Amino acid sequence: MQVPKYYFPGFEQVPSELDGVMVFAPIPEKDEDEVRSYACPQCGGHLKFDVNSAGMACIYCGYTAPVATKQVGKSAQSFEFTLENVQAAEQEWETDRQLLHCNNCGAELSYPKGAVAATCPYCGSNKVNLSLPKTKSLRPQVLLPFSATPEALKPRIQEWLSQGWMHPKTLKDAAQIDKLSPIYLPYWTFSTAIDASWEAEVGHYETETYYDSSSKSYKTRQVLRWRWESGAISHQFSDITINGVNPQRINHAMLSAIEPFNLSGLVLFSPDYLVGMNVQAYETPLKEAWEYAKQEIRTATNRLCERDTGSSHVRNMSIDMSYDDEQWRYLLLPVYLSGYSYGANYYNFMLNGQTGKLAGVKPVDWKKVRTVTWLVALIPLLIALISLIISKISGSGALPVFSGLIVVLGIVISIALYVQAKNAEKIT
Prior knowledge:
Layout: E1 11-14, E2 23-26, E3 47-50, E4 55-58, E5 64-66, E6 79-80, H1 83-89, E7 90-91, E8 97-102, E9 108-112, E10 128-131, E11 137-138, E12 142-143, H2 150-162, H3 171-174, E13 176-177, E14 181-212, E15 217-243, H4 252-257, E16 267-268, E17 278-280, H5 286-308, E18 313-342, E19 345-352, E20 358-360, H6 366-394, H7 398-424
């Protein structure tokens, strides 16, 4: 075959602003994600990731195919804190996706092009609009695929709704549960080695001999002695996870309640896992997330240093610590968001998309709580009154003391039940 007159390997002709002048430029490398096809090879329908088969599935004919990726687990590549690493990770990984912006809560999520989203999975608002991505974001290196299926989680949700005496008896049957919305949430993981030297006043019990004048003999007793001590520890922290979602967008306490995730199931990132799924872009940048991680590291290091003293009595501790070999990863973890209507109110809950662990908010039947707490407090009081009458008749002085203890115990238990009910209104 004859080579064209104007042919240069690796170059292609591009438009020229000058007549009669041809311009050639290097042929751009094709993005692997841009040429992916999600058409079913069997019927031509649309493929999307299917949790049940853990692979790509056709929504029309049932064709399935595994995702071409590799499980790497905790050995997944991590990166040092260098400017080059951060810049190298910035890629337009959302070229085949578009953003949903919620005008109500401000959430920005990633959707496949052509998707029509009617409501926001966070707040349920229908005030949403679609737009193309305008900024570069870090491409996730790895992700944890969904493995807990919605069908398998339904009994767990029903069981959770039926638990707890302080909740309405009709909650399980009357709650109108929404569909589970799968969403990949952004997380950072951090690993580092620390060296810490500590100095503190440490208390140790010592036995001392003293003269007891009343018995006119020598006796021994335990005395807490304080003295300044110092020491040093080294420790390796691995895979400290920090979520990258704005706390105004999602309840961090609820999110922490469904952790941990088993990172041994991490796989290399493939856009196939995102087809048909919601994806939240990170809102907490790398440096800010690292500061949160260091707070956790410092708290854990304090405990390690206190343990190193060998005593449970420690005061005025100061710690000098240094970090070495700081590493980070950016990954996506699976979560189901949902909620339910009960009466005139709406309550949120979420589940771990890997383990199925559930956390959420449930209403409290305060009429029932007040009845139980009053009974717990009043019954001992009635017993005390009866005991007092009996003691007056019999002339015994022991019964009033016993009945007084019962009253105090009843009051303590009723207060504890009330506090338990207040906490049940938050996250369970």
